[in-house]
Amino acid sequence: MRYLMMSKGSDTPPDEKLFTEMAAFIEEMSAAGILLATGGLDPVGIRVASKGDEITITDGPFTEAKEAVAGFALVEVRSREELLELSRRFRRIVGDGESFIHQVF
Q1: What SS3 state is found at 27?
Q2: What total of structural domains would you count in the chain?
Q3: Which SUPFAM superfamilies does the record match to this protein (predicted)?
Q4: CATH number of the domain that 46 lies in?
Protein backbone atom coordinates (compact mmCIF):
# COMPACT_ATOMS: atom_id res chain seq x y z
CA MET A 1 0.00 0.00 0.00
CA ARG A 2 1.29 3.43 -0.92
CA TYR A 3 0.69 6.54 1.14
CA LEU A 4 1.48 10.22 0.71
CA MET A 5 2.56 11.64 4.05
CA MET A 6 2.51 15.44 4.26
CA SER A 7 3.65 17.72 7.05
CA LYS A 8 2.86 21.35 7.81
CA GLY A 9 5.65 23.81 8.41
CA SER A 10 6.88 24.65 11.90
CA ASP A 11 7.56 27.89 13.73
CA THR A 12 10.71 26.31 15.15
CA PRO A 13 13.75 26.50 12.88
CA PRO A 14 15.50 23.14 12.36
CA ASP A 15 18.67 22.50 14.32
CA GLU A 16 21.60 20.12 13.82
CA LYS A 17 19.96 17.41 15.94
CA LEU A 18 16.84 17.46 13.74
CA PHE A 19 18.93 17.18 10.56
CA THR A 20 20.94 14.28 12.00
CA GLU A 21 17.90 12.34 13.24
CA MET A 22 15.94 12.94 10.04
CA ALA A 23 18.89 11.87 7.86
CA ALA A 24 19.15 8.59 9.81
CA PHE A 25 15.37 8.02 9.56
CA ILE A 26 15.38 8.67 5.80
CA GLU A 27 18.41 6.38 5.31
CA GLU A 28 16.70 3.60 7.28
CA MET A 29 13.45 3.90 5.27
CA SER A 30 15.37 4.06 1.98
CA ALA A 31 17.44 0.96 2.82
CA ALA A 32 14.25 -0.92 3.75
CA GLY A 33 12.64 0.03 0.42
CA ILE A 34 9.82 1.91 2.19
CA LEU A 35 10.66 5.46 1.08
CA LEU A 36 9.84 6.05 -2.59
CA ALA A 37 10.26 9.85 -2.68
CA THR A 38 10.59 12.77 -0.30
CA GLY A 39 10.98 16.52 -0.57
CA GLY A 40 10.14 19.99 0.61
CA LEU A 41 7.42 22.08 -0.97
CA ASP A 42 7.41 25.73 -2.00
CA PRO A 43 4.83 27.44 0.23
CA VAL A 44 3.78 29.80 -2.57
CA GLY A 45 2.35 27.33 -5.08
CA ILE A 46 0.13 27.79 -8.14
CA ARG A 47 -3.62 27.18 -8.30
CA VAL A 48 -5.11 25.81 -11.53
CA ALA A 49 -8.93 25.84 -11.61
CA SER A 50 -11.38 24.91 -14.33
CA LYS A 51 -15.02 25.75 -14.92
CA GLY A 52 -16.43 24.61 -18.22
CA ASP A 53 -13.96 25.58 -20.93
CA GLU A 54 -12.29 28.26 -18.78
CA ILE A 55 -8.96 27.50 -17.11
CA THR A 56 -7.73 29.98 -14.49
CA ILE A 57 -4.17 30.04 -13.19
CA THR A 58 -3.39 31.99 -10.02
CA ASP A 59 -0.02 32.40 -8.32
CA GLY A 60 0.06 31.90 -4.52
CA PRO A 61 0.54 32.13 -1.64
CA PHE A 62 -2.92 30.97 -0.58
CA THR A 63 -2.50 30.26 3.13
CA GLU A 64 -0.37 31.46 6.00
CA ALA A 65 3.07 29.87 5.84
CA LYS A 66 2.45 27.88 9.05
CA GLU A 67 -0.71 26.38 7.50
CA ALA A 68 0.92 25.32 4.23
CA VAL A 69 2.21 21.79 3.63
CA ALA A 70 5.99 22.08 3.84
CA GLY A 71 7.15 18.61 2.93
CA PHE A 72 6.11 15.16 1.81
CA ALA A 73 7.15 11.53 1.73
CA LEU A 74 5.76 8.87 -0.55
CA VAL A 75 6.03 5.51 1.21
CA GLU A 76 5.11 1.92 0.46
CA VAL A 77 4.24 -0.19 3.49
CA ARG A 78 2.67 -3.59 4.19
CA SER A 79 0.01 -2.37 6.63
CA ARG A 80 -1.75 0.61 8.13
CA GLU A 81 -0.05 -0.20 11.45
CA GLU A 82 3.39 0.09 9.82
CA LEU A 83 2.35 3.43 8.33
CA LEU A 84 1.18 4.76 11.69
CA GLU A 85 4.38 3.66 13.41
CA LEU A 86 6.44 5.52 10.75
CA SER A 87 4.24 8.56 11.31
CA ARG A 88 4.76 8.42 15.07
CA ARG A 89 8.52 8.17 14.62
CA PHE A 90 8.49 11.13 12.22
CA ARG A 91 6.47 13.32 14.63
CA ARG A 92 8.83 12.39 17.52
CA ILE A 93 11.79 13.60 15.43
CA VAL A 94 10.27 16.87 14.18
CA GLY A 95 8.31 17.73 17.32
CA ASP A 96 5.03 19.58 17.66
CA GLY A 97 2.90 20.02 14.55
CA GLU A 98 0.57 18.26 12.18
CA SER A 99 0.91 15.69 9.43
CA PHE A 100 -1.65 14.45 6.92
CA ILE A 101 -1.70 11.04 5.29
CA HIS A 102 -3.58 9.94 2.18
CA GLN A 103 -3.53 6.51 0.58
CA VAL A 104 -2.39 6.59 -3.05
CA PHE A 105 -4.43 4.40 -5.39
Answers
A1: helix
A2: 1
A3: Dimeric alpha+beta barrel
A4: 3.30.70.1060
